[in-house]
Design goal:
about 80 residues; four-stranded antiparallel β-sheet; 1 helix; about 5% helix
Length: about 80
């Protein structure tokens, strides 16, 4: 299950906390390299902020986050079990 949060925040980069440190990814898809950077497996947080305000989602678990423009998406359920 994926949750999408459309925000009134316009910034060029989103910041993520990973197991290796802090990672910044662009929020636009201008080049093919940017298109390949669509989802990040973050361990601590995902942050989308401007100079004066923003939004950060903190978590103890691993989630997949993706930002395109001003929409922050994250996966809240990793596995779906099929009932037979």
């Amino acid at each position: 299950m994926i949750v999408a949060l459309p925000l009134d925040i316009h910034c060029a980069y989103a910041t993520y906390g990973t197991q290796f440190g802090v990672l910044e990814r662009p929020t636009h898809r201008n080049t093919t390299i940017d298109q390949a950077k669509f989802e990040v497996c973050a361990h601590g947080f995902a942050d989308l902020s401007e100079a004066t305000y923003g939004l950060a989602i903190a978590s103890r678990d691993k989630y997949g986050y993706a930002v395109e423009g001003n929409v922050l998406r994250y996966v809240i359920q990793r596995n779906i079990v099929a009932v037979s």
